[in-house]
Amino acid sequence: MLIILVERDRLNGETPLRYGSDMVRPIWKGAVTFGLVYIPVKLYTATEQRDVKFNYLHSRCHTRIRYRKFCPHCEEEVNEDEIVRGYEYEKGRYVVMDEDELENLTAGGGRNITLLDFVDLKEIDPVYYDRPYYLAPAEGGEKVYALLLEALSQSGKVGVARVAIRTKESLAVVRVTGPALLMSTMHYPDEVRPAAHVPELNYRADLHKNEVGMALSLVESLAAPFEPEKYRDDRREAVLELIRAKVTGETAVVTPPPQTEKVVDLMDALKSSIEQAKKERGVAKGAGRARAAGKPREESVVEDAAHP
Q1: Which of 77, 177, 198, 272 falls between 20 and 30 A from 4, CA-CA?
Q2: H helix runs in the chain, sequence order
Q3: Residue-level pLDDT at 12
Q4: Would residue 39 count as lying in a domain?
Q5: Quick check: is 199 in a domain?
Q6: In terms of residue numbers, what domain contains 233?
């Protein structure tokens, strides 16, 4: 049996919980090229997983579990320098590839982000996006970096590029975000599964005009500017609170989610949703006006629900 615990550090008598990192280091150095223009850049990851990190421990002694790389044929543990890559082309039969062979495959465009086309951002379906990275100018590349940034800003275009990071070559898009260039790696078309392959999407539904109108009213009542800072990971916060309680020896109390009444009629559900949205948005706007007028903020369950 395994149990999962998190690491903790003791600092000034406290037990801070560690997850995520504020350290920013370049993971790759290369250049952006288009035409005869060469821009030396550094690549930084733009996002990070903020999930609570757990370790697997043995339940009896709380010793951290080790994972060994073991060869069942030789019956021995294998070191990193003894491991090679193999592609299984038939059951139990492999061709072996070494790192130099894989590196040489991208020799022509290695270390380069080659801009191929400039397109409108709205033409790219978000399903193609994979991972975002910040591009920063390397030494001596500040002016030409600023020139590309300004050209993309004024044209409203984004650059479609090909980039090789480590041993993987990816499609990418380079665009402007604030004062920086952002590169998002993308999936190739044959890596994106068509929606037509989902069998449940082959359906028919007869919609009444009134139902569509009510649904539009609900969408409009919930319409708001996108403010990412107002959304919270409630699950992560609940896990952290439970961990803090365990670390300090407190009894953790988990409040069960409220039971919602099941509504059978679609129109009744839409009407109730619109009324609830208007009520919640009204409370939120009232609280905002109160804060702007210097009045103390009143805590409200409804306000919290309107700002998840």
Answers
A1: 77
A2: 99-104, 142-155, 209-221, 234-248, 266-292, 301-306
A3: 35
A4: yes
A5: no
A6: 204-306
Report how far apart, in Å, the C-alpha atoms of 30 and of each of 26, 33, 103, 136, 216 are: 11, 10, 15, 11, 48
- Give the DSSP letter of residue 300: -
Mean pLDDT by 10 residues, the chain (308 residues): 40 39 80 92 92 90 90 93 93 90 66 93 96 95 96 96 83 96 96 93 92 92 90 90 85 60 69 80 58 43 34
Q: Which of 292, 160, 170, 288 is nearest to 224 (CA)?
A: 288
Contact 176, 152 (CB under 8 A): yes
Shared-domain flag, residues 213 and 298:
yes
Cβ(76)–Cβ(70) below 8 Å:
yes
Q: Which residues lie across from 169 on neighbouring strands?
A: 164
Per the CB < 8 A criterion, the answer to whether 216 and 274 are in contact is no
CATH of the domain at 156: 2.40.290.10
DSSP state of 66: P
**Element (H or E) spanning 307, and its range?**
none
pLDDT at 269: 78
